[in-house]
């Protein structure tokens, strides 16, 4: 487990000027706490010296070949018990910046993280908004797909997930989309070879059992809320949402914060979740209405 490298004062100064850092560290206890960061790559979240953090990815060598990548402490594919992998629980927080879309079994991943946080512990995410990046040509992920991945306990991306990621990716520039360009009219990222390449990659990964990194899931802020609502009604999403920050102009990611609530009664948790989702959906809808009015000549 590593400790943050910034002084508390330096961290607070940086966080006050960096909205992304503030959202990823929302409700992280200061000046001391312990937590997890998933898939830190070569850009782990900046944390103060009193914060201890362990890095988790799907394999210990998941970041091999990346210069200055953070060392991975624990390998966990997102299915099965995270507590058994870590050998402990009671963590104060977890951070996953641009990671959840790569997780083959998203419901199992959420369940595992929930199980190692203390009551009141938070999970902070940043997620790509598919409308403003290369997933613009894909349709939003569905609860049926999430349930299938959970029932089959995926530990690596499925052939369908790999195929969709490769075939449907488009050469999208967020700035041009915000300026009015229709992403559906942009060329496929892999050009004319996309269809054959997608089939070849899916076939090879299936035959070899090789882990092929891809975007397994695609969201918008509102579609993510719908998935959480549906999964909660099935008893498959244990967190309670705290807040959601929609995608900002010229950007391509949105932010979600959720907590492990201390309430043990499933019906009470579901009621809290329904209230939270309704409140956050109204915030996003209000932001969308405001943006539409502002864009009207």
Structure commentary:
The protein is of the alpha/beta class and 297 residues long. It has one domain (88-295). It has 10 helices and 8 strands. The chain has helices spanning 8-17, 19-24, 82-86, 106-116, 143-151, 159-167, 174-178, 194-208, 221-233, 266-295, and strands at 2-3, 33-38, 51-57, 74-75, 91-97, 117-128, 240-245, 253-259. Helix 6 packs antiparallel against helix 8 (194-208) and helix 9 (221-233) packs antiparallel against helix 10 (266-295). It is globular.
Task: Please give the structural blueprint.
Blueprint: E1 2-3, H1 8-17, H2 19-24, E2 33-38, E3 51-57, E4 74-75, H3 82-86, E5 91-97, H4 106-116, E6 117-128, H5 143-151, H6 159-167, H7 174-178, H8 194-208, H9 221-233, E7 240-245, E8 253-259, H10 266-295
Parallel strand pairs: 2-3, 2-5, 3-4, 5-6
Antiparallel strand pairs: 1-3, 6-8, 7-8
Helix pairs in contact: 6-8, 9-10
